[in-house]
């Protein structure tokens, strides 16, 4: 009997343990589910905060978002101004109370300021939400609401400098291409010109004919979206990789007779120019294709590609507006011809003028590239600053030492090389010219110049100029850059 009672007691205890174990297991499952839902909830809250802080304005500003139309029913779209106070876009009300968007300088700022008819582009698109917000004095807003009248929208004050924009626009003339001018130390864009252009005041009237013309590209902002072979401006990258692998004090020597042939591949210097005995500095200053195509054959192609990545090829540029990615493609198994062509800026490499201006700016700024931006601040109709936009670094593109080496090489291009038209001025300049072949017909090339200028009491400026089918960079692009430098450095700001 005693044994049976003991056995029964053990069975009861085991049953109790099993019940507790089951209950504990269920509690654990409930805890896991609770924590899972809590984690999901926290993730949703986190994304909601992220969206409100970082993304909501982009969505509201989208030209495809009909919500913006609701703001337009109560707010007069604000002005867009240059940094020196010129009105670049405004809303005009006629005697019947009808409102139209007006662009006083017509074609000059067409691509960078943009338009609001048939969609939106440029600053009109980027700052859509800001232009449809009003921070007028609250009593004024109250009175307007009582009268059922619209409030005045805030104004966008851009970084664009009217005198620099006009100088670039006039210098490019009737040639197709682009000019970008920015401050290396801040990233402020002072000018952005693209041609062919259009008159935004008549765009709506001409829209059907423009879109019906399959060959028309007047709406394309070539400064940010145009992709071109860089030509000899890419020798900036090639020479830097060579120096990384061989050192700046290497005994480079080349005897140029106007062309070079390797494994049946022939590279000609521009117009078959004979440069004779060259060290690295002279080869760069004279833009010797023969020398640089052979330099390319000695490079570590993997490290070459890594340098291009450091210099923002094949990735998004750090800008808040629409811009295409520059492209660099050269596999480690590339042929002799492809390597030689790539080293002189031909091959499959494509760049935007904006990107090349950023590279020149980074060199001038001791290797650090600043994020390019177009808006300085937002102000209400009383001139009160609502929001300011400050310079910010995108990071070190190259080292300070490397920037110093490139500065010396680019200065020599002006002192004794292909950009000598910029020497002897009231300012100092440095840069690199380029003549980039395109298409299948020989003898046609885009003209390039990328570089920077400096003068005491002035902020430095960097520039990229491309003229489509313009021939040589020294003959066509350099004079355009000179006119911009002359206007900027010889005019009191």
Structure in words:
Residues 1-21 are annotated as: Disordered. Residues 177-485 form the Penicillin-binding protein transpeptidase domain. This is Penicillin-binding transpeptidase domain-containing protein. The protein is an alpha+beta fold and 493 residues long. Helix content is 41%, strand content 18%. Strand 14 (375-379) and strand 15 (385-388) form a beta hairpin. The model has no long low-confidence stretch (mean pLDDT 90).
Describe the structure concisely for a colleague.
Residues 77-156 form the Penicillin binding protein A dimerisation domain. The protein is α+β, with helices and mostly antiparallel strands and 493 residues long.
**Unreliable runs:** none
In round numbers, the mean pLDDT is 90
Beginning-to-end CA distance, first to last residue = 112 Å
Helix content: 40-55%
Number of helices: 17
Label the CATH architecture of the domain at 231-373 and 396-489. 3-Layer(aba) Sandwich
* Secondary structure category: alpha+beta
Secondary structure layout:
Elements: H1 2-61, H2 67-72, E1 75-76, E2 80-81, E3 87-93, E4 99-102, H3 110-113, H4 122-126, H5 128-131, H6 138-146, E5 151-152, E6 155-158, H7 162-172, E7 177-182, E8 189-195, H8 203-212, H9 222-225, H10 235-246, E9 254-256, E10 259-262, E11 265-268, E12 276-278, H11 280-285, H12 289-297, H13 301-310, H14 336-343, H15 353-364, E13 368-370, E14 375-379, E15 385-388, E16 393-396, H16 400-416, E17 428-437, E18 445-454, E19 461-467, H17 473-489
Helix pairs in contact: 7-17, 12-14
